[in-house]
Amino acid sequence: MARNRTSGDGDDAAGTSGTTAAEGTTAAAGGSRTSGAATGVPERLLAEATRLFAERGYDRTSVQEIVAAAGVTKGALYHYFGSKDDLLHEIYGRVLRLQMERLDAIAAGPGDVSERLAEAAADVVVTSIENLDDTKIFFRSMHQLGPDKQKAVRAERRRYHERFRSLVEEGRRDGHFRADLNPDLVVDFFFGSVHHLGIWYRADGPLSAQQVAAEFSDLLLHSVRRP
Amino acid sequence: MARNRTSGDGDDAAGTSGTTAAEGTTAAAGGSRTSGAATGVPERLLAEATRLFAERGYDRTSVQEIVAAAGVTKGALYHYFGSKDDLLHEIYGRVLRLQMERLDAIAAGPGDVSERLAEAAADVVVTSIENLDDTKIFFRSMHQLGPDKQKAVRAERRRYHERFRSLVEEGRRDGHFRADLNPDLVVDFFFGSVHHLGIWYRADGPLSAQQVAAEFSDLLLHSVRRP
Amino acid sequence: MARNRTSGDGDDAAGTSGTTAAEGTTAAAGGSRTSGAATGVPERLLAEATRLFAERGYDRTSVQEIVAAAGVTKGALYHYFGSKDDLLHEIYGRVLRLQMERLDAIAAGPGDVSERLAEAAADVVVTSIENLDDTKIFFRSMHQLGPDKQKAVRAERRRYHERFRSLVEEGRRDGHFRADLNPDLVVDFFFGSVHHLGIWYRADGPLSAQQVAAEFSDLLLHSVRRP
Amino acid sequence: MARNRTSGDGDDAAGTSGTTAAEGTTAAAGGSRTSGAATGVPERLLAEATRLFAERGYDRTSVQEIVAAAGVTKGALYHYFGSKDDLLHEIYGRVLRLQMERLDAIAAGPGDVSERLAEAAADVVVTSIENLDDTKIFFRSMHQLGPDKQKAVRAERRRYHERFRSLVEEGRRDGHFRADLNPDLVVDFFFGSVHHLGIWYRADGPLSAQQVAAEFSDLLLHSVRRP
DNA sequence: GATGAATGAGAGTTCATTCAT
DNA sequence: GATGAATGAACTCTCATTCAT
Question: Where is the stretch described as Disordered (chains A, B, C, D) (predicted)?
Answer without folding.
Answer: 1-41
